[in-house]
Amino acid sequence: MTMLEELIEALLPYIVGAIGSVVMLLWGQAAVYAKRKWGIQIEAIDRAALHSAIATGVDLVTDKGMTADQRIEAVKDYVAKSVPGALRKLAPSPDVLTSLIVAKMTAAVRRGVT
After folding, report:
1. Strand, helix or coil at 64?
2. How many whole angstroms from its chain centre is CA 34?
3. Within 13 Å, how many C-alpha atoms sit on residue 99's CB side?
4. Is pTM, for the whole model, over 0.70?
5. pLDDT, tens only, 59-102
6. Which terminus has fewer CB within 10 Å in the chain: N or C?
7. Cβ distance 55 to 104 under 8 Å?
8. What is the largest CA-CA distance in the chain?
9. C-alpha atoms less than 13 angstroms from C-alpha of 105 in its C-beta half-sphere
10. Using DSSP, how many helices (H) and how many strands (E) does the chain show?
11. Residue-wise burial string across 70-85, b where 16 or more C-beta atoms lie within 10 A, e elsewhere
């Protein structure tokens, strides 16, 4: 065996280990990128589902002879039943949820829906 072959044989485990480390580093970076990209997309889907459920809930409580507070509570109930996963993931505070509902109700009034 030549000196070069002996050197390669001695260094081969270190070379394989270094290649494995680089592959694991690249795999980790790809996982971080995928989580960022798809995590943001999933959040956008949940946000859209929440807004859609609020809009539908507002439409459902129009002309029901309810007070404004009763309508808000009815929409909250509808949203909780309609998109529980989106509510759980986004976790809006009660004040934020109420504000979103009031904004959708105000928009409905401007459109002449109620």
Report:
1. coil
2. 13
3. 5
4. no
5. 988 777 889 899 999 999 999 999 999 999 899 999 999 999 99
6. N
7. yes
8. 95
9. 22
10. 4, 0
11. ebbebbbebbeebbee
